[in-house]
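> example.struct
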């Protein structure tokens, strides 16, 4: 009550008449009453909702979840800025590239070196095995001599065929007759 008198004196000092002060204070009281009534109505609505859920056998946690989903669905949606390549992402990509490039080059170098060494060893071992196998064939009596004789005869026929062009057709005809 004391506050109301203080406000009335202040309004009177600002130049309002007694009737204007009455109207202003009456309107302020109406606004305060409406605000309290709205708050009370909202509280009653929430209490009524909880009472209805309890009567229906719905647990309180499910009711809370439903209320939150309802509020989220009915709130005005704000437009989100589309995410793109901002300055921060570009700087991060460059920084990652500075660290990743030397590592990638090192890994590729190690893999290439290892693969090169492996292939060199395999080719060397393969050639050594081929020479050893050929040497074993030559050391065996009859097989080595037969292999060498067969290779020499085949090579001789090959060279003889290409040395005289007239024999190309004859050799071809001879091959057809043998079939």
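> example.seq
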């Amino acid at each position: 009550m004391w506050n109301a008198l203080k406000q009335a004196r202040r309004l009177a000092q600002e130049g309002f008449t007694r009737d204007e002060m009455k109207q202003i204070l009456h309107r302020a009281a109406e606004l305060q009453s409406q605000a309290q009534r709205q708050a009370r109505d909202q509280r009653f609505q929430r209490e009524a909702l909880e009472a209805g859920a309890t009567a229906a056998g719905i647990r309180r946690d499910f009711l809370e979840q439903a209320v939150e989903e309802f509020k989220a669905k009915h709130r005005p949606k704000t437009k989100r800025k589309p995410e793109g390549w901002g300055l921060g992402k570009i700087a991060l990509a460059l920084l990652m590239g500075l660290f990743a490039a030397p590592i990638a080059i090192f890994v590729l170098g190690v893999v290439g070196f290892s693969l090169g060494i492996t292939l060199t060893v395999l080719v060397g071992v393969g050639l050594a095995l081929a020479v050893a196998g050929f040497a074993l064939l030559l050391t065996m009596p009859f097989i080595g001599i037969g292999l060498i004789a067969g290779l020499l005869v085949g090579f001789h026929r090959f060279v003889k065929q290409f040395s005289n062009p007239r024999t190309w057709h004859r050799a071809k005809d001879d091959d057809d007759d043998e079939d």
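> remarks
DSSP finds six helices and no strands in the chain.
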